[in-house]
């Protein structure tokens, strides 16, 4: 097993208890969504991974007996960007897919036969709604983040529009806010290749006689769009695959021809032709603009965004990511942009693990209490005088003093307000004015928890203690609000 992998994993198949009401007006019942989950078991810090055009739920780890890991094993696992020690990572297969989720090759419960092209048309929005139903039925009530590349990035962006309060962070990689005419054009040629294959048979083909030639041709063309001119020079040049001289025929001669033929042959083993029709059409329909404006389309989002492009991607060029950034910025949303520098073209998001781990890890890793707290804050003993407490506060320009016992453990807290009250009330001893029942926090806790404790108890500071109650730091509401500005 690869180091830092989640190890052996299995795919689960969940039948949704509720129908999926589709954008077309149709509805699908008994929908199965295939998914895998890695890391935390407690449904906390859930990150949803959305796959690209021909992906599946097997994003990380190894299926029993496999030597090849899931398609995003490079960024999912212990200590990686999607750190399975910290997060619960869930990857699904899209509605309309053919890797376990309900799609055109699935059995129609009404007929007992495969849907074929009686399967209703679907959209990216429908995929996201099916994912939302799955998560709710798994008992998940919010997403720490949703992440995806290419069509997975479309799903991630669609999540922020469909369920703004449900998703806290969106990572959209090598994608767009809408499909361009070029995307539609490539999808159209791919579908034409499949539908012009006599074995497509109007969509009613048998597993033993699928339109493999058409599907392979569709893949060969699409695969070119996932590479780049530079990477093809490097990978293939003008080399001939086997012979030393031109054959003056039309068989596979050049290395690049051989590669594409191989990719086509591999693809038909793992993908269903009708799924290719439905999913590429869903990509065509993807458009988050409203009245032609992406700014209007993203106005209702609440998430924080990380938008990533790939420098050599000519299928989803960086300008499409920058358009998303402009629309988010125009709405005053919290958004960051990063560009993967890669010669690999669009599929760079599947290959450039070092850059992705850095960019995504930086964005996801929460700033914890430890990052913001005052380390080793001044403290005072219960036997000290009120005057000594006041002098410490003025000397350090602080308003809160932890009161500690001889071993450094916390026994109370005194604030500048307590000092003021002591003067007004003519109290003499610290013990008379300090608060003994102290609300504390631990250094690995999130800032979100700290803020909620301060709000709930109407306090403006939290001593940071270890498991033995020893004071490690002090976090104040002033520092917390600054962090929102700086984050
Ligand atoms: C995000 C998602 O949802 S992932 C979706 C599912 N995955 C995809 O669609 C990914 C599509 N892209 C690919 O498959 C790409 O190959 C990647 C990005 C996964 C891997 O890229 P690379 O590591 O550069 O591999 P490469 O593209 O060179 O393909 C390697 C394969 O081509 C073969 N190959 C390379 N050159 C040639 C050639 N001249 N002739 C024949 N075969 C060749 C290799 O032997 C290897 O074979 P394998 O498929 O049995 O492993
Ligand atoms: N090559 C990947 C990305 C396409 O966008 C796939 O086929 O899913």
| CATH fold title of the largest domain | Rossmann fold
Profile the largest sheet. Answer: 8 strands, mixed
Unreliable sequence segments: none
Annotation, overall tally of beta strands = 18
Mean pLDDT: 95
Bound molecules: acetyl coenzyme *A, L-homoserine
| Rg | 28 Å
- The rough form would be described as elongated
How do the strands of the widest beta sheet line up side by side?
Answer: 1-4-6-5-9-10-11-12
Class derived from helix and strand content: alpha/beta
EC number: 2.3.1.31
Pathway: Amino-acid biosynthesis; L-methionine biosynthesis via de novo pathway; O-acetyl-L-homoserine from L-homoserine: step 1/1
Binding site for substrate: 219, 347
Organism: Methanocorpusculum parvum
What are the main properties of this structure?
CBS-domain; 3 domains; binds L-homoserine; eight-stranded mixed β-sheet; repeat; three-stranded antiparallel β-sheet; single chain; 487 residues; binds acetyl coenzyme *A; acyltransferase; alpha/beta; Rna Polymerase Sigma Factor, Chain: A; Rossmann fold; 16% strand; homoserine O-acetyltransferase activity; amino-acid biosynthesis; 36% helix
